[in-house]
User: What shape does this take?
Amino acid sequence: MRLEQLDYELPSNLIATKPAVPRDQARLMVVHSSSGRIEHHRISDLPDHLDATDIMVRNRSRVLPARIEGSRVDTGGRVSGLYLHSLDDGSWVAMLKSNGKLRSGLSIQLGEDGPVLELLGRDGASWIMRCDRDQTAEAVLQSHGKTPLPPYILSARGEEMIDESEDRDWYQTIYARESGSVAAPTAGLHFTCELEEALRIKGVSFLDVLLHVGPGTFQPVSAPTLDKHQMHREDYQVEKAVLDIIMATDRARRLVAVGTTTARVLESLPESNPGRDWSASTELMISPPWTWRHVDVLMTNFHLPRSTLLALVAARIGIELMHEAYAIAVEKEYRFYSYGDAMLLL
Assistant: This one.
């Protein structure tokens, strides 16, 4: 698949800088892949477009306040970055950015009197560092980290001031449990308790899987073709009871994947039921043509051009219909990206 097939023009004013309030009042474009019909609704209308026997599968990963903002102890120069994960010895792995050159041995202080991070060395494009606090990385980040909003949101905000506490609430699904993601599974951000209850009353049931979203999820493709692009690796987990339902050979109920991360988990599952809890990693790229094994319906936000997420949408409804839907979304001024509106791909 050529990279230009994943391109489209988006006016900057359509990049959402905060979510709809309440969340379920965001717009919902319903796309019928078989007929090409496109409808316009609200997220709160979701029960009207699902069957009573449908099963919604969601990613329950919780977003860490993984954005780092600090200063060099020696010069006071500003350093920013993104915490990625911790190693077995407790050291951190993070992506860092600074106007000055970083090197091993430098110390970075978070905030005015926060913890100090000592740079130990490089790990590819990332840095390994040690924190001087006798706390877990999650505990330090909860008090001194910030919500890891994508750069395009921060840029689109300009001078708009939004309190960190609001972003921490907005950039988290209501069903998030285990912490580990450095980006939100954004399709799930639209759910409210009221919407969940309406879906349950309809008869829709829910299953949860776990995939901690890494920083590569939203990166544009830089290679000229998709087959030259190196997908990021992400770990996922699915409990046996959930697998038993997903992989039942006589399944007559539709699986509705909430978000592309959930879709990747479902399509990455082994061919046969392992009969136990399943933990693995995936580098799966889903692009046209794709034979879907488990996903029957996909709910997803509007994605960046030239991204693997847009390729996944094209794999679901076809390249031509994907371009038509996105052109209509721009024309009708849908809100795009992480805090934006959503699509339901039937």
The mean pLDDT is 92. Helices lie at 137-144, 151-157, 164-170, 193-202, 240-246, 260-268, 308-317, 319-331. The chain is about 20% helix and 25% strand. Residues 191 and 209 are 16 Å apart (CA to CA).
